[in-house]
Amino acid sequence: MNCDCCKKNEAKVQVCDVEQNAVVQQFAICNDCMTLLKRLLFDPATPLGPTSEAVKQVQEMLSSKDKSLTPVEAPGKLTVADKQPEAVPACPSCGMTLAEFKQRGRFGCARDYEIFSAHIDPLLERIHDVTPPQHRGRLPQGEADESVTGKARELAALRNQLDDAVLAEDYERAAQLRDRIAALSSDARSKPGKARKEGP
Amino acid sequence: MKALPPFNHFPRPLGEWLKGQGPESDIVVSTRVRLARNIKAWPFTLRSSPQQREELLLAVFEALKSIHLEKSVVQLRINEVPEVYRDVLVERHLISRELASSEGPRAVVFGRGEMLSIMVNEEDHLRLQWIKSGLDVDRAFRALAKVDQALERRLPYAVSPKYGYLTACPTNVGTGIRVSVMVHLPALTLKEHVQKVFKAAEKMNHAIRGLYGEGTRAFGDFYQVSNQATLGRSEEEIVESVKAILPKILEYERRMRGQIFSDERPMVEDRVFRALATLKNARMLNVQEMMSHLSLVRLGISLGIINDVTLATVNEIFILGQPSHLQREEGREMTPAERDAKRAELVRTRLIAGRN
Question: Which of B141, B146, B154, B175 to mutate to probe the A interface, most A CBs <10 Å?
Fold first, then answer.
């Protein structure tokens, strides 16, 4: 099958436009065109539109014969990442993808900042009018005070360990931690006084 | 119409910020400082399951218990607050519309003086705010920073050396601080100079918005001046930058007030007294009408045209005349027409009772 963009090379990658969990359009493209497409889709300077728009742009680029746009990378082997329209991996902690972030404008967890760092820096420079984006204000004085005990800290610590266990695929440990968190939460809930039960 | 369920968790007297006191209170209604914080162990609210939100809520409640905030704080789970009362909280600036209408375990904790308020499981895990009447950025910031620093010893915040305090929205990252000053600019509005102020503020990286924050229209000539950028500057620099822009706006508004008072005195007096007469006599008042007339009365007070009404009374009517406050006062749900009648009655009686 020939590539839908350049109509020359053999198509290696399937690209889909998805709307509300349904595929609305599909393209088969070659690795060269995929490289161009990725550049378009994940360039923070261009607003993210539907993939079909980007495919059209790639087609235009190729027909315009603008040499500066030809892919610099040699067509390599088909990799796992190439099979997905998403070039930047999703966050392993919360599953946020760059595309979802662009659509919602909100992050899913603290790790997203690290994972999408290269892509959000230009955005942060624009929003905050600062180059390079570097924090200059205060930070918590060291780690949270270890001498302060109590359920709040314990719950937070267990939750951290649970995340690590899930990432390490240590499901046995994860299950134990989950049970401890549940026990600790219900303990705090049943305590008389301020914390009351959630309404319907 | 349905009677409202009993709900006695609100302090009766209105918050300190409505007292009409503090520096520059002829123009500045209130100063608000807000900090956005997330706690390391949990995903941000967007990705938190109801179970995780509940855990976080309990952790925050536990942490707050060990901090000596004020003598008594009100702690409310939003799901347990009947809808009309949620709107009362919004009208009082204690919670955001988003917190009122979202779902799952979420809460607000506020002091009896309604200066401190902490929203839990809003867009960020914690939204801490401190409101003071008049222009008082330093004190509001210092008070809030104290609460923040007490909390950070108990709850490990999500931070990074590069990006500072990590927030759900990239517009808040870094310091997580938003300083907003609510100003009343009737003369600049009247002379159609407000747009100029907006443009100048934007150039200096500040935003001017309507009364209830982002995306809302200004009504009653009230605006919020706030910092845009939160990253790449220290908290002190941000506080100073907002403090630096305000004298210019205040001076401009005062100059315009002086100008219309000397050049167009009969016109100003006529408009101010007509507004007061309407408020004292109307039998039906909708919110917009009330706001625009109160704005002129407020202008009249600060120009010395009106001497028998206080700023505090005007500020109070602003809040008590809002739809949900009226319904709470009446103890039942009301139709818009019923509310307009009730509002007119409230305004009449308050203006008589609130005389100097």
Answer: B154
- Report the C-alpha gap between A174 and A160 in whole angstroms: 11
Name the pLDDT band for A15 (thresholds 50, 70, 90): confident
Q: Are A188 and B58 in contact (CB under 8 A)?
A: yes
* The two structure tokens encoding residue B330: 């009446």
Kindly state whether residue A195 falls inside one of the protein's structural domains: no
H/E element holding A98? helix A98-104
Among candidates B156, B162, B168 on the partner chain, residue whose Cβ is nearest the Cβ of A107: B168
How many other β-carbons are positioned within 10 Å of the β-carbon of residue A9?
Answer: 15
* A48 and A21 inside one domain: yes
CA-nearest of B255, B187, B274, B257 to B223 is: B187
Contact, B211 vs B231, CB < 8 A? Answer: no
B175 vs A contacts (CB less than 8 Å): 135, 137-138
Of B322, B319, B320, B310, nearest to B351 by C-alpha is B310
Instruction: State how far the Cα of B81 lies from the Cα of B180, in Å rounded to an integer.
Output: 27
ipTM above 0.95 for this complex: no
Instruction: Please judge whether A110 and B46 are an interchain contact, meaning their C-beta atoms are less than 8 angstroms apart.
Output: no
Q: What is the pLDDT of residues B263-309, one digit of tens each?
A: 999 999 999 999 999 999 999 999 989 999 999 999 999 999 999 99
Which residue of A120, A138, A143, A147 is the best one to mutate when testing the B interface, meaning the one whose CB has the most B CBs within 10 A?
A138
- Look at B41 and A128 and tell me if their CB atoms are within 8 Å: no
Print the domain residue range for A68. Answer: 13-80
* pTM, 2 dp: 0.75
Residues A178, A103 share a domain: yes
Helix, strand, coil proportions of chain B in percent (round to 5)? 45, 15, 35
